[in-house]
Design a protein that fits this description.
Number of strands: 7
Strand content: 25-35%
Bound molecules: iron/sulfur cluster
Number of helices: 4
Structural class: alpha+beta
Number of domains: 2
Order of helices and strands: EHEEHEHEEHE
Helix content: 10-25%
CATH topology of the largest domain: Alpha-Beta Plaits
Amino acid sequence: MKLIVTFSRKAGKKPIIASVVRDTGVLINVERAIIDSSEGEALIDIPDDQCRLVKEKLAEMGASVRILEDVITLDESECVDCGACISICPQEVFSFDENWKLTLDAGRCVLCGRCIDACPHQALSQKIDT
Ligand code: SF4
Ligand code: SF4
């Protein structure tokens, strides 16, 4: 399961994710991180059955956490199977099936947003749960 973790750095540079790994024993895969002097945001991937534990621990440490489910959503009624998203996605989320229809493996997505901007038919969107 993928989570977006947002945390403030104003109180210091605490290694939040490393601390959660240490305290919970859950191995966390950091897929993307943007950190500046005042705050940070990281996209992490964890086993589904550990989600609650990690989410609670992150919240305890002052981070806000959003769950990403079906990260990228395809509106099949808008898609014209042009393939623009296939060529721009760095994670190989998209491919054509044997009938040249677009298919996606949403679990590979790292939420970079490139495909949403590239789609000429606004067929792609992101869903974020809290
Ligand atoms: S870029 Fe948009 S219209 Fe083209 S294949 Fe991808 S989702 Fe479909
Ligand atoms: S958001 Fe980025 S990683 Fe996810 S499907 Fe689109 S291009 Fe690929």
